[in-house]
Amino acid sequence: MTVTAAAGTCVLTAVRLSDAIYEQSASSADFTVNLHRANQLTPTVTGPTSVTFGTTGVATASGGSGTGAYIFSTGASTGCSVAGTTVTVTNASGTCALTAVRLGDTNYNSSPASPAFTVTLVKANQAAVTVIAPSTVSTATPRTAVASGGSGTGAYVFSAGASTGCSVSVTTVIVTDANGTCTITATRAADGNYLVSAASAPFAVTLLRESQTTAVVVTGPVDLTFGATGTATATGGNGTGAYLFGHGTSTGCTITGTTVTVTNASGTCVLIAIRLGDATYNVSASSPDFTVSLAKANQTAPIVTGPASVTVGTTGTASASGGQGTGGYVFSAGASTGCSVSGTTVTVISASGTCALTAGRAGDDNYNPSPLSTAFVVTLSGAAGGGVPGTGGGGTPTPAPAPAPEFVLEQGIIGLVALIDVESKLTSLTGTTSVSSTSTQGTVTVNVPAGAFPAGTTIRVGAAANLAALSEGAPPPDGVDLLAAFHVEALSASGTEITAEFAPPATLSLRLEASSVPAGATPSTLSLALWDGSEWATTPSTIMVGVDGSLTITTLVTHFGLVSVLYQPPLGQFSPIPNPTAGAVTLTIWGGGDYAMLDAALTVGDSIWITFGGRWVVYIVGAPPFVNASFIALYPDGLPDGTPVIISR
């Protein structure tokens, strides 16, 4: 018997067929047979293998038995759901496992559940992100960065990238340098269903400086005298910007940088200033006007230069030089009993009287009236052949000129040093006066511009003949040598030395022949110095090295005196350099330095000898420590600068 439909019915009856004796029997009573459905095989889920958030997948299965449909389930999955065969991602960071059963049909029971089938959940790409703010940020007021777009619930993350003028912390945009650039980008962070977004397009932010709130005020100079300069100063403003000064419509001064120069002491001088901007602040507003009081300079006394004599019946012309400015000379005969002066005309009143002229120079826009000159004696003579009583009829003879004053050095070293090749010249008001003096060390030339001294001033220059004697009276610093020395002075017409400073400055140029320059000397080891009565004071100078090894040292001076060239041997060097010949002995001076420098200046085996307490002490380069123990004990930190030594090699 075969089951054709287990859901149907099965009733059996039977008859017994006839045989040779019996007829076929009557049909039996109905006999019911119970039919049962079969169990199915276990089905298998076959898809989908992966689903991306925002899309769906189709669940598929195979296996089982019969014609029943597959029913799918996500069970304990945390990241997906299934409706019919449609698989939907609910959380791409969760899990997804599908199972299936096959429903029963006429002949089969429902199947057992399939094994779990893992579906890979994939996060989706986000939509584009766009930065929308801030468009501007000022140095004092940070702003908040804002973005839109992207997908999901992730936060926006901002970056200033390669910006040179701003930074961003979380969402706060801060100006770091308003002179720089600021470009912001943003990404949106990942969440359960979306990947990190792509970076947004760059968003340019305009950086704004703050206004300076503190007023700028010019504070100086309060007053200024013609011929001098002043330094402009200011306070106020904000930030680190420099102050920029101007003189506006001033008629009496100019300003370059911070240097204020009087151009017309009778004019006006009004300064203003601004403070320049910096990384934080804009340029400030202009300061209020600051008035500088301009003062005229004082003149030096002029010198009457003529007439040397006037004869009765004629007139002489008074002349003068010196003083400063453009004012005219005003002459006076004072208490003279023999002459009078009107303008510049000198007239003899009595040839037997006296005549002494003085002059003052009138003031101008920049100078006060000068003090009066010293009296200038005019010789008065009678008419031709007339004679003057008391002279034997021959007139008053012109007195012999006074002898030139003795040329001596400054106070404190007078008489210590003789001067050689003493040269002198008189200054004029029309050109440069040049005076030179030469010694075995070199030649010094002094160029005095017109106007630095009154006409008739004597400029004298002499070379120091004995540098050793000079070094005793005017000692240089320890370890420093005098290479050359000269004395320069200015004498008034009366023979008095002029010690005050003068302007414009004179140029002092000193040339040292190559034979006078120590071996190894460089511009950095040389300096020009003036003796101030107690010590040598170096002065700024320009030092040029000639192709022949000579040196030319040039400087500007506004007062004269004793001038020298100083040489300080550099650390780690000898002066003179030791003779490199084996077996030679050299007397030299060490420029100072530690033992490493001393060893480097020599070669292994060279010995250095000094006397100490009447005995010789030796240091041998490269020798064991016990050999040099006595020497090192005397000089544990190295041989001092300026130490004389004998080197044997």
Shape: elongated
Beta-strand percentage range? 35-45%
Helical run tally: 3
Average pLDDT figure = 87
Main β-sheet, spatial strand arrangement? 43-46-47-53-49-50
Structural class: mainly beta
Report the uncertain regions: 385-415
The first-to-last residue Cα distance is 135 Å
* Main sheet specs: 6 strands, antiparallel
Total number of strands: 58
As a percent range, the share of helical residues equals: under 10%
Alpha-carbon Rg, integer: 56 Å
Please describe what this structure looks like:
- The structure is a single chain.
- This protein is mostly beta strands and about 650 residues long.
- The protein is built from three helices and 58 strands.
- A six-stranded antiparallel beta sheet has the order 43-46-47-53-49-50, with helices on one face. A five-stranded antiparallel beta sheet has the order 44-45-48-52-51, with no helix packed on it.
- The longest helix has 7 residues, at about 465-475.
- The radius of gyration is 56 Å and the shape is elongated.
- Residues about 385-415 have low confidence and may be disordered.
